[in-house]
Amino acid sequence: MLGMIQHRGPDASGVYRDDQITLGHARLSVIDLETGDQPISCSRARYWISYNGEVYNYLELRDELIALGHTFHTKSDTEVVVNAFSEWGPRCFQKFNGQWAAAIWDSWENRLVLSRDPIGICPLFYVQNNGNLLFASEVKAIFANANVSRALSKTGLCQVFTLWGSYAPQTVYSEVHEVPPGHCVLISSDTIRKEAYWRLEFGVSEPGDRRLEFGPAMEELEAQLTRATQLRFTRADVPVGAYLSGGIDSAITASLVKQLSCAPVDTYSLRFSDPEFDEGEYQSLVSSDLGTTHHEIAVSAEDIAKTFPEAVFHAERPILRTAPVPMYLLSREVRNNDKKVVVTGEGADEMLGGYDLFREAKVRRFIARNPTSKVRKHLVEKLYPWMERNPANIPAFGQSFFSKNIDLADPGFSHRPRWDTSRAITQFLHDPDTSPEKCVLDDLPHNFETWHPLEMAQWIEIKTLLNGYLLSAQGDRMLMGNGVEGRFPFLDINVIEFACKMNPAYKLWGLREKHILKRAFSGRIPTRVISRPKQPYRAPEANVFFSPSAQDWIDYLSRDVLDTIELIDSRKVKKLFEKGEKFSSKKMSNTDNMRIVAMLSLALIQEQFVLGRGLRPKPVKVTRHIDRRSERRETKGDEYV
Amino acid sequence: MRNEVREFIIENFLFGDEAEMVDDNDSLMETGIIDSTGVLEVIMFLEEEYTISIEDDELLPENLDSVPAIVRFVGQKLSTPKAQTGLLAVE
């Protein structure tokens, strides 16, 4: 299993064994380079842990635990996590500020706990198989066991092809479950139970709990973000770099990193030759303003076409956009630059109302209150100004599109246009699920309908696109594919909880997105970056595949793989690819772009995982082996391997 | 013409699956067969296939959002002398 995830932890490998369990660990050394190897135990050797991630407040927790009588033998956050669990049990996860996937084994009671961070930054999967339970950070490690079924799940695929990601615990593989964000899974010999230790909740929950006024809220946001960045920058024993997209969020996190750093800061950006996607002008502006050592890589259409199979291998699920591929190439640049930690601006749009979808939902609500008004419908033309094939280019159709599904009582109101558009991809499946979004609507908090409409939209966005796509397929997987850890100040638990309680009008002020964030940092980053219209990160789309550089593998997929996917109508997919070829020199519709990327990535998933042609583990040298199977002994090195 | 338009919709948006085209009278957008940008492909097809030019103010759901609407609209365009559409001036 470890051989399949060496990319996540190339620095060391460890194994713990007793008569009931084997824990494995592939280490990316970031904190405590000397003594931080895993698996390790708590001070009384009852609990053993294999853990990926960082708990940034570990020094404060360590002091608290020392005061309670715990002793520590390393300087790692891992040892704090396992001791915290021994002290507080699963409640300890409520005390952590960080990102993690942890497996903690109670060797006295033979119980296992799997835990994942509140917002789902670090991945964690498990499978029950013939009385055994296998778990890992990536599905491919579980698939290293040939007894595990690798069959695709129609339910999971329909979710991806509608919501952009599967909804945990569902995955695109029928036997594989994902630990939901903010949950633990408690496992004993006869039971498996999921338990939430944290819930994403918006609104003012307690009577008398008042929201802050704008000025104090702005100051508090700035203080929280500064603290969050400080934790993520200073709590590492390796240099920390920063991504710069050209937008406001990464400009803010990079500026906070620069403020905290005595040494020069390395920043990293993507460039595209197509001006529709390139943000180089703004990246240069910020890097010059901050005085960073700036690195940029130019990504061509050919690079995307050639690297797509490798990126899908790391994503382990179909994707609807090519945008993860350049992110994978960027993390490779970071790693080639001998860095393994970067701070990024991910999460700001979800927490502080930055997405066009939020503006769109606001306009649609305005239309819904008076559907016959012709004037209101013209507001649609203000949406998506960055999009070359903007629906508003044909006003009557754009208005008609955004005026559909305007039932204000629908809890999924904000996301209907996206779900309806994406759902077109399910037409390639035999007998697709008719309501893939039901999993989300069934999971809504009990008081959801008392929240402000923006908060409802934020909750759905975080639970679907952020969890299922941005942090996973485009986030962790594209970073960890090259052994790079992403750190996200906007997803600090204190920033999240503060943003959830903030007055929604401060986030989306009229149709001005992230208003409070822009005001809070207006003197700190260049005005042109603050005032530029929102441009979401995008990359050249499906046209890139209909070129000589991708021809070989697309022909191979069409010829040898598509017909083996039982869940799809391969004849329709081949017609789609023919249409793609025909349109290769023109702009395709948004839906066709998604269809092609989705079907190509699905075919690659079939080839690499279901047919198993990509499951080639790398050799592993185990540097730490703890064997407690018969007599209790511990050693370093590989003498027991 | 009805069959040609219908076949174009089925081949281009339903990838040959005729069963998905339940009723020709259905709205193409309401049923999700085309999205708001997919309508550009319909326009391109009509302009190339029937040698007509569709003006911006004709890009309306009542002209393009169902097979019968398209047939009616194109029929009207074809029966109107070109000089009156302004096309000669463009040429």
Short characterization:
Helix content of chain A is 39%, strand content 14%. By secondary structure, chain A is α/β, with parallel strands linked by helices. Chain A has four domains: 2-198, Glutamine Phosphoribosylpyrophosphate, subunit 1, domain 1 (4-Layer Sandwich), CATH 3.60.20.10; 214-305 and 333-351 and 472-531, HUPs (Rossmann fold); 356-462, no CATH class; 543-610, no CATH class.
Describe this entry's structure for a reader.
The complex is a heterodimer of chains A (641) and B (91). Chain A folds into four domains: 197 residues, 4-Layer Sandwich (Glutamine Phosphoribosylpyrophosphate, subunit 1, domain 1), CATH 3.60.20.10; 171 residues, Rossmann fold; 107 residues, no CATH class; 68 residues, no CATH class. Helices cover 39% and strands 14% of the residues of chain A. Chain A contains 24 helices and 18 strands. In chain A, strand 10 and strand 11 form a beta hairpin. In chain A, helix 5 crosses helix 6 and helix 16 packs parallel to helix 17. Chain A is globular and about 75 Å long. The two termini of chain A are 15 Å apart. In chain B, 54% of the residues lie in helices and 0% in strands. Chain B is globular and about 40 Å long. At the A-B interface, helix 13, helix 23 and helix 24 of A face helix 2 of B. Chain B: It comes from Marimonas arenosa.
